[in-house]
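ESCALATION

Customer reports they have been waiting on this structure for their group meeting. Please prioritize. Original submission:
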Amino acid sequence: MRTGWMAALAACAGWAAVAAPVDKAFLLQTKNTTMAFQKSGETWLLVHYGPSLGSTVDAAALAVMTAKDSAEANSAQFYALQFGRPGAPRHWAGDKGTTGTVAVGPYVRVNNLDCRDFTHTVKANGQDYVKKGTACREQNGNWTVVQGAA
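Update from on-call: job pushed to the front of the queue and completed.
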């Protein structure tokens, strides 16, 4: 898949391309969903499809985050939910000193879905932003933040 083609796809489909560099990774994001692509040799692979950061990061933090910050935070969120051990936060670093951690709780089975509580902390411009919630892995493997979660 060529970079120009992906940018055209993003524009036509109403997605916003928010990650760089595009030669190695590409992130498409809407209000509720994120798709992350990573280049392996000459092939682009879909490596993440799930909730956008808007549901897993404090809205005030999103307002000050760069595209790289968003990409790093989204990747950390996915890997923490998918593979993280309770009590072992996943750290990420973005642009201009922006950093964050994602901590997850143990898996809990709810309505035949694997769910986990999470806490995503972003440190940007000398301020901490914290968002807590619960995400469940649907039958198709996508993580969805449960509505009404704290």
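Sent to customer with the following note: Residues 67-83 form the longest helix (17 residues).
Escalation resolved.
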